[in-house]
Design brief:
four-stranded antiparallel beta sheet; single chain; 10 helices; 47% helix; disordered C terminus; alpha+beta; 280 residues
Length: 280
């Protein structure tokens, strides 16, 4: 029994008890924060949920769990009154707010964006030179994934002071390839042949949700002008789809006026010039 007395004496000390209780509470708080995060994640991703499925709610809930745990453990473990701590924080709040003014502005900006339904995860947006799909809105920034796979981190406070364009998903993946047909062309047959060529050679790059179309836009001295309108699928560069369509149409030998260099991406010698127009 004498062998265990030093060990028992060690664990009988108050500071050891405090450390043990603090460790138990920390583990319990970590588990509670994890459960809260997963529960909120599933609730926010339900179809009948009116709130955006943004991580800012999960992050704030996680912080609140830890704040509540800290409040509980302060007095019994560390002998610090929560009221005294909050009073001290209130006095130092001005200095803290000045030091964290950018973070506070970003957090408020994130809530403003979501509750005003300006944007939410899944929206297709264009901000300055960035166009992509909103992946997440967290406490500091909005994450936008571009078509090429790059992730752009835009501070929430910037979005509240910058012009933002919310795009229809079809417009974001649209490419327009102009052409000029010979004056005596059968427009109905040419449109059918163009669509057949496009669907045959570029189907793997096209978005199956939208059909390619041919639209005639007017008349010029070279013939009938028009556009091939197609839609790139997710993960495909718009220029890649434009290039595939231009190559396919050029090799199809359709009734087009190539001498006018009016088929985008093809010059008089038949070489691709890469001038196809697309919306990026």
């Amino acid at each position: 029994m004498e062998l265990f007395e030093p060990i028992l004496h060690f664990f009988a000390q108050r500071w050891v008890h405090n450390i043990i209780w603090a460790g138990i509470l920390a583990i319990g708080t970590a588990v509670a924060a994890k459960v809260t995060s997963k529960t909120l994640y599933h609730l926010l991703n339900r179809d009948d949920n009116p709130l955006p499925s943004s991580s800012i709610f999960i992050n704030i809930a996680r912080v609140l769990v830890w704040v509540v745990a800290l409040t509980i453990v302060l007095h019994p473990v560390f002998g610090v009154s929560p009221a005294s701590l909050f009073t001290a924080l209130g006095i130092g709040g001005l200095a803290i707010s000045l030091g964290l003014k950018d973070s506070i502005a970003n957090t408020i900006g994130g809530f403003t964006l979501m509750f005003s339904h300006v944007i939410q995860p899944g929206d297709t947006v264009s901000i300055n030179d960035t166009t992509g799909v909103v992946q997440d809105i967290n406490w500091r920034q909005t994450v936008v994934r571009e078509r090429n796979g790059n992730l752009m981190m835009i501070p929430n406070s910037v979005l509240n002071t910058t012009a933002l364009e919310k795009l229809d998903p079809a417009n974001e993946c649209l490419v327009t390839i102009p052409f000029t047909a010979k004056p005596d062309v059968d427009t109905a047959k040419l449109a059918q042949d163009l669509l057949s060529t496009v669907n045959t050679h570029a189907r793997s790059l096209m978005n199956p949700k939208y059909k390619a179309v041919v639209r005639y836009t007017g008349f010029t001295s070279d013939g009938v002008s028009g556009n091939i309108v197609a839609y790139a699928k997710h993960g495909v560069a718009l220029t890649a789809l434009s290039d595939a369509i231009a190559r396919a149409v050029h090799s199809s030998k359709l009734n087009l006026n190539f001498t006018a260099s009016s088929l985008v991406g093809i010059d008089e010698s038949g070489a691709l010039t890469g001038k196809s127009t697309s919306r990026s």
